[in-house]
Amino acid sequence: MTLRRCSKIAPGGLACLPGSFVGYTSVNTLTKEDALIIRAMSIATLALALAPLTAAAQCNGPKPAVTSVRLSGVSKGRYLNFYHVTATVINVGDEAQAGNLLQLLDVVQYGGRLDARGVPPLAPGQSYSITYVWPRSSDAGTLTSPLNFRIHSPDPPATANCNQARPSAGITV
Fold this sequence. Notes:
This protein is an alpha+beta fold. The chain has one helix spanning 32-57; strands at residues 2-6, 23-27, 64-76, 80-91, 103-109, 112-119, 127-137, 146-152, 168-172. The N and C termini lie far apart (59 Å).
């Protein structure tokens, strides 16, 4: 690569016009060896980027996913509103979860856990819904508070789930 001083660049920006002396532009010549190195580096980068996806795709075990979170109702009191939020977990994997599996659905707001509810082991395609009642001041504005529902298992990964397809979902109430 060589550098040439250039103040006037031709249309398209590929060459300097004669008699220009202020800025710099680079002139590259790509050799066959350079092209092979670039191609090899690109293939290696792509292979490394896809490696985790390939490992996850080969996992054919249970895959619990939080598939929906919805507001199922609001009970209004004098000072508090009680928001009834329903979260649904489905095993979208190919295998049933172990019968002795311990897994929890955490109710999270701003990174802090408000509550945790147990979710039983699920067969492939089986779903389980949990309704969480969240008390809020009746003066609070609507659509100002996010709630996130996150499934996790304190069991070691080898005995818990092969892969969590969608470990969390949320709603703003």
